[in-house]
Structure formats: structure tokens, C-alpha cells
Amino acid sequence: MPQISQLAATYSSQIFWMLLFFGFIFFVIGRGMVPKVMATVEVRDKQIASDLAAAEAARAAANAEEEAWRAQANAQRAEAQAVIAKAKQDAAKASEASLAEANARIDTRLDEAETRIGGARAQALKEIEALAAEAAGDIVSRLAGVKVDAKAAAAAAKEALNA
Amino acid sequence: MAAEQAKVDPMHQFTIEPMFGTDHWSIAGYNIAFTNSALWMAITVVALLVFVAGGNKRQLVPGRWQMAVESLTGFIDNLLAANVGPAGKKYVPYIFSLFSFILFANLLGLMPLALIPGLHPFTPTSHFTATGVLAILSFSIVLIVGFWRHGFHFFSLFVPHGTPIWLLWLIPFIELISFLVRPFSLALRLFVAMMAGHVLLEVLSSFVIDSSNSGLLWGTVVGIPSFILMVAISALELLVAGIQAYVFALLTSLYLNDAENLH
């Protein structure tokens, strides 16, 4: 068994080279390169995590934007409805007002016309009365030769006409 | 008969030989010859260096190689996070070095490189002088961290929770022994597992060679089943190479947990 039979002759060389090579591995590879490899892994993990967070944030932002857009669209729709309703109301009010105005105009013209007609009739009646009184006076004077007072003739004509 | 037996010596593969005429190198009287063991440690270092450097491209979207290296570091990171917790993060370089060095050394020693003439694969982890260094390193780190963080309170490790008062004379003693055995169990487990696998493969290969040499009949009856068994055991040994590296790293991190988070 060379491990034991060569022990005395080789132990110092074994220990020396083992320490040398293992020390090299520890200091150059273990402490020099392994932390860099692990840092790379860490950077990647961090990058992935931050990318995921960014994606999540972007999704939340998109959701919020959509929500805002929807709210805005709803508000605009409501506004449009209000405008339409107001326009309808305004139109109704305006047509009502113009109708009322037209009615009023028609009414006043009717009144005017009525008063004019009333006036004309009264005038006509008066003329008829006057004519009747004249005619009655004439008839009386011709038939009876009596001169009738114009006033009395008018009263009599009026009475006869209104009876 | 004796000469034929010596033809395939299953232990010969573990022989350490100085290479490149460096057997006279020494520091303060201690021999530090550059042996075949040191050579395979160096090959392990180079392989590991190439592997990690190839995966250290630091790309945001990793390629296959980078993915492989990152899953290895992530594996060690998870191991420490699970066994030590947040305080284990600072041991990642050490545990990574430990795990990957043992894994690469184990696997390289298993490669069928002996098929290339003149090449003799060697597994440094099949020597307790090598595994012992790693075990003592781990044990020392546990001791240093334990006493650094908890001072003499670290000795309360030897009195587990819920120890009955009337057993206080015995339990700390048992705990102390189990604690002191740790470096030996760490070193011996790895060395024995590696050596046993290689010896088994070597013995089976000697069956194949010897039975083939003694004729068609024995070559068929003994050689072919042995060869099939070798294939299966080679697969098993690949598994063992990974498991032993994992066990070493896992136990070290469990011991570090004792030192970091004293119960």
C-alpha cells in the first residue's frame, strides 16, 4: 500500500503541492472567479425581477389608462346626452314661445278685426238710423204734411229699429 | 507463479514517483519533489481553471458552458444556504474550491487515459496525505470560526440541547471525541472510497487479462463477466466520485454551521 509505505518519503511533497494547488484554486478560482459568476447570476435575477416589475407596472398603467378612458368616454357621453336634452328643451321652449307669440298676434288681430267689425256695424246702424229717421221724417211730411222734429224722428226710428 | 502475480499489482497505481528529475527539491530539509501526484493536482487545477474561466463570460443570457458553471456555483450556494443559512454566503469560495477540486481530481483519475501509451492517470484524492490536508483545512476553519465568533462559549457545542444533568459527565466526552474524529473521518472516507474503487477496477482488469491469457474457455467464462462488471463499476465509480466530493463539501458546511450558528 504505497499510501503507507511511501508515507515518510512523500508526505512533505504531498502536503506542499496540495497546499500550493488548493491555495491557487481557492484564491484564483474560488475568490477570483466564482464571485463574478455569482454576481452575473445575481444581476440576471435582478434584471428579470425588475423586468417583471416593469411589465406589471406597465399593465397597471394600461389598466388605469383604460379605466380613465372609459370614465372620460362615459362623461363625454353623458355630456352629449345633456347637450341633446338641453337642445330639445330649448327647441321646445322656443317653438312654444313662437307659438304663443303667434297666438297672441292672431288674438290681437282678431280683436282688432272684431272691434273694427263692431265699429263698422255701429257706424252702419247709425247711418241706417239716420237714414231711417230722415226717411221717416220725409214719409211723414209727405203723407201728413207735418213737419216732424228731426230729433223725435230719430228717436222713433231708433225705437222702431231696436224693437 | 510469483512473477505472474506481480504482473498486475492493484496497488501499484497509487505509487508516488518524482517526475522530471525533481526528486532532490526540498525546502528546509523537507522533500518537495514534483511527483505524479502533484502533476495530477496541477492537471486538475488547469481543468478547473479552464472550466470556470470558460463559464465566466458574464453574459446576460448564458450559453451552455456559462450555464454549467453557474449551476455549479448555484449548487454550492444552495448547499450553504440550506445548511448554514445567510451566514454561509462567505464560505462559498472555500466550499466551491473544495467540492470542485475533489470532483475534478476524482473524475480525472477515473478517465481511461492509460489507454494512451506512457500516460499513467493518478488520483491525488486516493492518498490520505492529500485528503488529510483538505480535512485539516476544513477542521481548522471550523475551529477558528467557532472560537472567533463564540470564544470559549464554543465549548458548549459538546453539551447538546436537552442533555440530562446526570449525564453531564459522559455526553461532553462523547461529543468531544466525535468532534475530534471529524478531520480523520473526512480524510479517510474520501481516500478509502477512491482507493477501493480503483483497486476493484484494477483487480477486475487483472481477472480479464489473466483469464484471457489462460485460454478461450476461461476468457469467456471469467473474462467477459468481469469486463461487464468493470463497465458497471466504472459507472458506479463516476457516481462515487461525485458523491464523495459532495459528502466532503456537505460535511464541511455542516461543521461550519456548528461554528457559525452554535445551537
Overall description:
With 163 residues, chain A is mainly alpha-helical. Helices cover 95% and strands 0% of the residues of chain A. Chain A has one domain (2-162). Chain A has helices spanning 2-5, 7-144, 150-162. In chain A, α2 crosses α3. The longest helix of chain A has 138 residues, at 7-144. Chain A is rod-shaped and about 195 Å long. Chain B has one domain. The longest helix of chain B is centred in the last third of the chain and has 45 residues, at 216-260. Chain B is mainly α and 263 residues long. In chain B, strands 1-2 form a two-stranded antiparallel sheet. In chain B, α2 (36-54) packs across α4 (92-110) and α3 crosses α7. Classes of the chains: A mainly alpha (163), B mainly alpha (263). Chain A binds chain B through residues 1-3, 6-7, 9-19, 21-22, 24-26, 28-31, 33-38, 40-41, 43-44, 47, and chain B through 11-12, 14-16, 18, 26-27, 30-35, 37-38, 41-42, 44-45, 48-49, 52-53, 55-56, 58-60, 62, 66, 69-70, 73-74, 77, 92-94, 96-97, 100-101, 124, 126-130, 133-134, 137, 191, 195.
Which secondary structure elements does this structure contain, and how are they paired or packed?
The complex is a heterodimer of chains A (163) and B (263).
Chain A: H1 2-5, H2 7-144, H3 150-162
Helix pairs in contact in A: 2-3
Chain B: H1 2-5, E1 26-27, E2 30-31, H2 36-54, H3 64-83, H4 92-110, H5 128-150, H6 171-213, H7 216-260
Antiparallel strand pairs in B: 1-2
Helix pairs in contact in B: 2-4, 3-4, 3-7, 4-7, 5-6, 5-7, 6-7
The best one-word shape of chain B is globular
First-last Cα distance of chain A: 171 Å
Estimated share of beta-strand residues of chain A? under 5%
Helix content of chain B: 55-70%
Count of spatially separate domains of chain B: 1
C-alpha end-to-end distance of chain B: 61 Å
